[in-house]
Write a structure and sequence with these properties.
It contains four helices and seven strands, in the order E-E-E-H-E-E-H-E-H-E-H. The chain is an alpha/beta fold. The protein has a five-stranded mixed beta sheet with strand order 1-2-4-6-7, with helices on both faces. A two-stranded parallel ribbon has the order 3-5. The protein is globular, with a radius of gyration of 13 Å.
Length: 131
């Protein structure tokens, strides 16, 4: 698998920064592909910044349960995920983080990218890339 569009390698982690209008199933599929790429390339952390994604309302609890469970399966416990989203997309109780944890997926969600980077650097061992 080649590097997904909108994915870059940062300081020991990957960052997926899609932009544009998507249906929910399209963006969750693209996120899943980014997770699989990280898993296959032994990249331990992925920041997913969807603040520039539009085209769907905030997901329902059922939708969140479905795609987060799928991401947990794809990550196989090898990739921690930190999601950055607009405030209206984040549940106040961060229920999606609970869903993820219950399925073996380490992760968190923030509305501020700097906080997401800080979380990754504090909670996930840095990936060492060979040059």
């Amino acid at each position: 698998m080649g590097t997904p569009d909108d994915l870059s390698i940062e300081d020991g982690y990957a960052c997926f920064l899609p932009a544009g209008e998507f249906a929910l199933h399209e963006i969750t599929r693209r996120i899943d592909e980014a997770i699989a790429y990280c898993r296959d390339n032994k990249i331990r952390a992925l920041i997913i910044d969807i603040t520039r994604v539009t085209g769907f309302p905030p997901p329902t609890l059922t939708e969140r349960f479905h795609f987060i469970s799928h991401w947990a399966f794809t990550s196989a416990g090898m990739v921690a995920i930190c999601l950055v989203a607009r405030p209206e997309m984040v549940l106040p109780d961060k229920f999606g983080v609970v869903i993820a944890a219950n399925r073996g997926l380490k992760g968190d969600v923030f509305t501020d990218r700097d906080k997401a980077i800080e979380w990754v650097k504090s909670n996930v061992p840095k990936t060492t890339f060979e040059k």
